[in-house]
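[job 0412] stage=complex_fold ligand=magnesium ion status=START
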Amino acid sequence: MSETLLKVESLEKFFPVKAGVFKRTKGYVKAVNDVSFEVKAKETLSLVGESGCGKSTLGRSILRILEPTGGKVLFNDKNILDYSKQDLRKMRRDMQLVFQDPYSSLNPRMTVRELVSEPLYTHFSISKVEANQRVDEILEKVGLPLEHSKRYPHQFSGGQRQRISIARALVLKPKLVVADEPVSALDVSIQAQILKLLVDLQEEFDLTYLFISHDLNVVKHISDRVGVMYLGKIMELADTEALYQDPLHPYTKALLSAVPTSDPLVKKERIILKGDVPSPTDPPSGCPFHQRCPLAEEQCRNVLPEFVEVRPEHWVACHLVEE
Amino acid sequence: MEPILQIKDLQIDVKMDEEVLNVVKNINLEIGKREIYGIVGESGSGKSLTSLAIMGLLASPPLQVSKGEIVFEEEKDLLKLSPKELRKIRGNKISMIFQEPMSALDPLFTIEDQLMESLKFHTKLSKKEMKRACVKIIERVGIPRPEQIMKEYPHQLSGGMRQRIMIAIAMLCNPKLLIADEPTTALDVTIQAQILELMKELRDDFETSILMITHDLGVIAETCQRVAVMYAGEIVEETDVVSLFHRPKHPYTKGLLKSMVGDRSDALYSIPGKVPSVEQMPTGCRFVTRCPEAMDICARVSPDDLEVAENHRCKCWIYQEEMANHV
Ligand SMILES: Nc1ncnc2c1ncn2[C@@H]1O[C@H](COP(=O)(O)OP(=O)(O)OP(=O)(O)O)[C@@H](O)[C@H]1O
Ligand SMILES: Nc1ncnc2c1ncn2[C@@H]1O[C@H](COP(=O)(O)OP(=O)(O)O)[C@@H](O)[C@H]1O
Ligand code: SF4
Ligand code: SF4
Ligand SMILES: [Mg+2]
Ligand SMILES: [Mg+2]
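[job 0412] stage=complex_fold status=DONE, emitting structure tokens
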């Protein structure tokens, strides 16, 4: 598990903010701001963070569904930001996205078979017989009965629709799957079914996952490594075990302490943060977390902490955490 | 413990084209003074309908309360009050906050307008006194610079701030009971922790009872003393929160606890299948289609809601048979 499949270097996605009659650019939403990390082949790397911290934008920028405004995305050592449209299309076979919302991401006028075979026809010149065979195969793997393949999305529950989305992504046999909140829209009793499916499929097809979620419990369960995002930046990145047992960044500590207990007899030590996440249009100077950080010092207001490897494979961006 | 609210055998039906279908039934519960009482269940289990019935806000038709009593302060059956009497209680002695605060706030009015509106209706304070009350409650719910916030419109605030404003409006008249329907579901965990903390403080300061409705067992474990588990429109288990988490009785509760993703156990568990729709409700126990312990009788006859341990009710044949064998 050491080979690097994906390497993200200083990635940036800034959205211009336009204002006034002439729609002049007034500033930028720094949705992804100088982010670097690696994903190793066959691992699950998760990104967690609160709403608006830039998780989805990061996922989409890596797949070039959104065009990044800076940095590099190396997939198998090649920078895909240099790719032409045509190369990009080829590359997409290997990099697929599963969306959060199983309700709006499927075309309501297509049957399950049409939905799942569509990516095959887009990416390969393939006969109908062969396509059908591959669809049958993948439907079985994701646990959808074949006799349902003529049905339309509205005839399925949320969990089943998410299975359809997963089948669509996996039918191409990709190497990397970016899953953006794939269980967030589902009921608790269904979430575990889908997570288990994702874990089983990873094993079967040697998949690499970049898993995006706001739910720390979900992430803990399925990840090898976890990165914590705040205001467009990664604050901490480490092995799941290290991150949950021994978090180093003050934001990670607060985030973990805010997760409700699953036992009324265990009262957690809680760090209640002040205020809201600041707007990414006007991020604070210095450390992006300093206005809410219980430990902030003078230097935090002015100097941006660097993202450094403070222990082997444990990266942190905080002035107070030392090697 | 003195009850503030007692729900007795509440049943809610929905009138379809020709038939009348049952959506909520067998709701029996008692919320004590200063207690935080939880209702937990998956989406569609009838939590919101139950809370709307208490507030007299069911969309009727097609929905209607077909049976039961909702007794407030041990005297008034809310279901027998006139719309005018209900309006006087609503937002005053009983108030409510919702999952999505944006839909409950009027986008065209400032925060001040929305707070004043409630005070005008329920009190006879002078304008100056009302304004002072507004500033005070906004400060109390943890919003800095209240004067400035009062001039703003809902869309200018973040989700967490809007929920604080909703709570401020709800607490303005010092209610005896606050109904909170998924108050933190739309919020991030750090904001959720802030809001739950605030609600606990308000319960202490204002001596308000809270009915906490959620699909999240974690929220229940954090805040509640007693809890009812709803499944497909019915309460299937009811007890104190420690018993529920440590000695659950109903197979559905056990499944829910097991499927809490996270720090409980390492294997991923999920309850097979899904909640039956109103049209396809099983005749016997409503959980029979998903129950790993189902017996023959379960599909035919609905089990009784029985006291299976002290202060612990459960509606399942396993315990009914057990108890029958003991007699
Ligand atoms: N097309 C866009 N134009 C301008 N700003 C955008 C655009 N898309 C996203 N943003 C902004 O970029 C920031 C990051 O958004 P993003 O959707 O990546 O967050 P997220 O972490 O996925 O949040 P959530 O948990 O709510 O899905 C937010 O402030 C968002 O408002
Ligand atoms: N206006 C309505 N008309 C018909 N059925 C409804 C209406 N509102 C809710 N229901 C049904 O009643 C059941 C319970 O709904 P609800 O109380 O909203 O669930 P919860 O809040 O637990 O998610 C669901 O099956 C839902 O579809
Ligand atoms: S750099 Fe300073 S403000 Fe930022 S997390 Fe560390 S201590 Fe807090
Ligand atoms: S009554 Fe039967 S089906 Fe229902 S929960 Fe109990 S054992 Fe399961
Ligand atoms: Mg997102
Ligand atoms: Mg609801």
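The pocket of iron/sulfur cluster (ligand 4) is lined by residues B 251, 285, 287-288, 291, 293-295, 298, 303, 316-318 (CB under 6 Å).
[job 0412] exit 0
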